[in-house]
Design a protein that fits this description.
- This is GDP-mannose pyrophosphatase.
- Its cofactor is Mg(2+).
- Keywords: Hydrolase.
- By secondary structure, the chain is an alpha+beta fold.
- The protein contains five helices and eleven strands, in the order αβββββββαββαββαα.
- β10 (about 175) and β11 (about 180-190) form a beta hairpin.
Length: about 210
């Protein structure tokens, strides 16, 4: 197992801090979780660092790295009705079932686009070519900037299929290879917006609607 200092996620966080003029005096490892290959999955660190203005940064940071999310829109080729292909699973925030877009963390030398393609395939069974997945933001967006380095990249894809093929992706169990217990859900677009309580997933919808307007 490599040390957290050698991991892609920690080094990316460290590099971004330095590029923004932050003087780092030290970092204390409070908790770290590693993948099976020894690379850092995520970690909690107590950072001793000073801003260019001479102020101390708030110290605690949950280092998670870059994350992708992919709004997956399936369009009935006859009626033009839009459906979202969502994933349903219990989440630790409150233990409830949540409906979300396919998403995942960027590890090692992977690009956000490559991870987007892989996560859609692994979580839904839908194999989408790279050119069909469209980025919605060039620069990363930070959903929890006061407590985490998590950096979000949002994408969307639109596929025209028959109604039969669209609903072939509904209620499919996936994720077991990664200790996830996911059930896919094909939901009419308007209904999906009411089901989703994850703020990033809602933002993905708004960015998609703005992009296609």
């Amino acid at each position: 197992m490599s040390s957290y200092e050698q991991s892609h996620k920690y080094q990316l966080w460290y590099k971004n801090l330095r590029q923004n003029g932050i003087r780092i005096h030290g970092a204390e490892e409070l908790f770290t979780k590693y993948k099976s290959d020894g690379d850092l999955l995520f970690g909690l660190f107590n950072l001793d660092a000073t801003t260019p203005e001479g102020h101390k940064l708030l110290p605690l940071c949950f280092v998670k790295g870059e994350v992708v999310m992919v709004l997956t829109c399936l369009i009935d080729q006859d009626t033009r009705e839009k459906y979202l292909l969502l994933v349903r699973q219990r989440r630790i925030c409150d233990g409830s079932y949540m409906y979300e877009h396919p998403a995942g963390m960027v590890d090692g030398a992977d690009t956000p686009l490559a991870v987007a393609v892989r996560e859609v395939r692994e979580e839904t069974g839908l194999d989408i070519p790279f050119e069909k997945i469209i980025p919605l933001n060039g620069q990363p967006l930070y959903p929890s900037s006061g407590t985490s380095d998590e950096a979000m990249y949002f994408f969307y894809t639109e596929l025209e299929l028959s109604r039969e093929k669209i609903f072939a992706y509904d209620a499919v169990h996936t994720g077991h290879d990664h200790d996830e217990f996911i059930l896919t859900a094909v939901v009419p677009f308007a209904q999906a917006r009411k089901l989703i309580t994850n703020s990033q997933a809602q933002l993905n919808i708004y960015m998609y609607l703005e992009a296609i307007a």
